[in-house]
Amino acid sequence: MADTTPTRIPASLIDARRSPVVTRRDWLQPLAPRARFTLRGGADARRAAGAAFGLVLPEDACRSAATPTRAALWLGPDEQLLLGLETDTASIQEGLEQALRGIAHSLVDVSHRQTALEISGPHAEAILNGASPLDLSLSAFPVGMCTRTVFEKADVVLWRPRADTFHIEVWRSFTDYVSSLIAEIGREYYPGDGRAA
Amino acid sequence: MSAFRTATGGRIDRSRVIEFEFDGVRYTGLAGDTLASALLANGVHLMGRSFKYHRPRGVLGAGAEEPNALVGVWRDEARYTPNLRATTVELYAGLKAESQNRSPSLTVDKGSVNSLLSPFIPAGFYYKTFMWPKGAWKSLYEPAIREAAGLGRAPRLADPDRYGNRHAHCDVLVIGAGPAGIAAARAAAAAGASVILCDEQAEFGGSLLADPTAEIDGQPAAQWLAASLAELSAASRVTLLGRTTAFGYFPHNHVGLNQKLTDHLDKPAEGAIRERLWQVRASQVLIAQGAIERPLVFPGNDLPGILLASAARTYLNRYGVRVGEQIAVVTAHDAAYQTAFELKAAGAGIAVIADVRADVDAALLEQAAGLGITVRRAATVLGTTGKLRVTGLVLGSVSGEAVQAGDTIACDAVIMSGGFTPSVHLHSQSRGKLEWQPALGAFVPGEAAEATLSAGACRGVFGLAAVLNDGAAQGAAAATAAGHGAGVRTYQASEAARHGGGFLGALPQPGGKPGKKAFLDWQNDVTTRDIALAIREGFVSVEHVKRYTTNGMATDQGKTSNMNALALVAATLGKPIPECGLTTFRMPYTPVTFGSFAGYSRGDLFEPVRRTAIHDWAREHGAVFEDVGAWKRARYFPRGGEDMHEAVNRECIALRHGCGIFDASTLGKIEVVGPDAATFLERLYVNSWANLKVGRSRYGILCREDGFVYDDGVIARLAEDRFHVTTTTGGAARVYAFMEDYLQTEWQDLRVWLTSITEQYSVIAVQGPNARRVLEPLIEGVDLSATALPHMGVATGRILGVPMRLFRVSFTGELGFEVNVPADYGRAVWEAIFASGESHGIVPYGTEAMHVLRAEKGYIIVGQETDGTLTPDDAGLGWAIGRQKADFVGKRSLARASMQTADRKQLVGLRTVDPAVVLEEGAQIVDSPGQTPPMRLIGHVTSSYHSAVLGHSIALAVVRGGRARLGHTLYVPMPEGDIPVTVTSTVFYDADGARLHG
User: Fold this and answer.
1) What is the pLDDT of residue B101?
2) Do A9 and B796 lie within an 8 Å CB cutoff?
3) Which of B602, B609, B824 to mutate to test the interface with A (most CBs of A within 10 A)?
4) Quick one: how far is CA B848 from the chain centroid?
5) Do A130 and B281 touch (CB under 8 A)?
6) What is the pTM for the complete model shown?
7) Which range has the worst mean pLDDT, B74-88, B145-159, B448-462?
8) Which domains, from first to last, does chain A contain?
């Protein structure tokens, strides 16, 4: 897909790429825009894509592979969510397309489809459990686990990159709802914080 | 200190006197009191009026089982909570409570006339009466019944409190922190299991809180309790939840807990969470709910001052309150003796112990004699005296079948015990079976339906040592079942009370007839005579008797009434109890506030509100929004003082003469990619796709298996193996799921994959004769000319340097484009297009103008023209079906004869004879004027608008055999008369499509 390689976007439009509208807190951070691709296909596609992406794409359910700048999240037997730096969007896409040539697969740029939030700190599990029905204890939801799940009335991808940190991917139009809900739940633990903007 | 407060003892804090108000009268109580114990300490037994007969009622119990003492507690008008049991309302400084179901006051109540009328309002009264005269129901009976119905009143202002929610998981959830629950929690925790221990009360300890002389492992029970709780609090994998009621047991060991956080505080912190709903998923649920004492059923057993013996013991030992000065005891169970002895020791007089049993443990009789207490054996109660408080107990004696009248014993309180009913509520809620234990005269948990265990009195184990050891054993078993092997320890314990005896049903009356006003169900005012009546009238199933008499159907869930009623039904029918069966327990165990269920989902957080990247621009430009699914969509953009019709007319005319810009971002979008993508779409949609060229798009129709239209949208082929599929806004999620379902279950052979891209792109529709001129200056790499990019052409390129998928499509009938750009750039690109369009008369238009414009062209909206019963052909879209295709979803159904008859409802246009009349959407259509109901209805109006461009109204409709009626006059019957209409083509504007292809 040549058409999604941004080469000459005016500065004013680059500024338009935005983080989620949420008041920054120590424990709840909107994350910067990033490159996102949905890769769907078989094990051959994963092997080829992983080599180009610089990670071994996880074969185990609900597990991830990550480097400091890239991550691959297992979302289904034939589906991976690939995350990278925004500035790498074009090179990631080119590299993957080249590596996947001749292999049946689907690679779709979803960089703008969703936004990301990070929730961290000693109360992260409790706050998330205000809306997530999952068992988020470290034994049931270990570091590196990821899953597509419900968050009260929204769908999210929940990923635990570190023991005290959760990364939430949420479709852009649900960002306000999810971030406001987290902020509301969090008031109990951080009473000084107001509601999300 | 009040007259009824003991000098010492109890778990109240005698140093902290608390002022409170009940029915406008100021009283004092002590920290640690409940409202009920504080009122009893002031000698107040009368706390409410009964539901049906408005009989004066006192407190019956001391806990969650209380049926009588329902009060409203008032913090402010928004924080008024009705129907709280005074026995569970913790006292705080300044508490204001009021009794209910009385007018003007508790002591003088005009509703008590119902009691005199009681012979005329028996069981089933509501089902039999109010049938005549016919008109009286609405004008007379219903208003009167509504006035009398229900208990308490709702608060008059919106609830300002916050409510929380928490999902939690654990190995073992222990419900109830009495001796069994605590022993179980200790055992499970010691084995390494994660444990949640909850208890509905303010203090953990259950029965131990009312038993000051019990000893466990050689130490006083209170010490053991404190040490055990300290041990549990210190354990990292144990969560203790006080004031937390397990109210519902849901499938897969999902248990709802309601935790009250601020109701006991005199000044809750601003913004504090009032209640939290815990949704616990436990690998093992261990129920230690305990048992509830049964009242005895005798005439006049509902007078204030008559209460359960175990409640009297709790008031004495936990709250330091004597329930009377001169107390009569009626019992069928040993435990009440100990209560009598303790009350006597605390300075109360014991007027008599009337034991229903002929044979009583000699040790008890000896002990009573030693204390100078008279015991009457083989006794029964024939009545009581008193109006607002019991003043005497009319005793009788039983000899064989014969009942002899006896004397009246003066007293100011009666405590009674019919034995204890194991609380099987939660086990029963979980669909667990119940087992009848004849020796106990009780149902106990049988085969479990979930991973459920029970321990202690709730499964018929009585006596402190037995209860502790059962708790420890079941706790260890639960931990083991959850994967944490555990050894079993034992406890040594002693207590003063004995556990023997029990009675079910009504106490014997002379002649074997039911006595007067012998209550089974205090809260719903059900008497022994009501049960007898129900059975006489042919209701023999216990479930029917329950519904006919309403026994057990009040908010107390029959905690004190079910077993006596069941025994009475069984005795009347001459059947054993287990053959009659017990009614099913349902959630909630005790009432739960709506706020608790709502949790965080209120106000802005009630539902997600989805907004597009262009939303803020529309808001800043005065858009009026409408809800489409969860989306906010701009409906119209009023200028000056325009109303909707004026704005829509202007938007439509401006677009048809110049250019309009529209936010179509909410359309569903799915990228279908893979070598078999075309094959997949061939099988799914009714159209042909194999022959669609790269760079072209086609209007697609999706049917369900039944052949009816399910969704529609434009599908573009971006590459041989890549399609950009659009769906309706509302259909996006279900179409994706429909596709994924087919791929995963039916067509696993296809190498094709789906990705939702709805939110990846902002979609900006630029429509109108000037659309090309507006876009041209902004676009690179795409030739917009009609030859290079004809109608339904698709191209990729850039707009302002931003990657773009450009569709030449039109939902307005004008020259039109839809610009798809990555959503973060949506607003900037929109603004640039708008700026470029200003010299070409561009206007933003909303969904309302879009509806009018598409209707002028006869384009359908799925869900408006279609209703799940229209085939593509019915909707005038038969041309779209790929007839050469071997198969597609719905093809077989469409081949059925009934799907092809000539009189199916078909989409047509309608013109009103009077061009100013706009038909009502949904209005029915008939084929001749002047019909009266029942009319022969042949169709209905699906869309109707005033067309500013055409200067007359237009409508789309589905009409039986509609296409054969072109030019015919039909009628739309309305209350004001028939509206004549002419059947037309569905296309009202630019029928040859010249503008579209411009």
Assistant:
1) 80
2) no
3) B824
4) 36
5) no
6) 0.93
7) B145-159
8) 22-186 (3.30.1360.120)
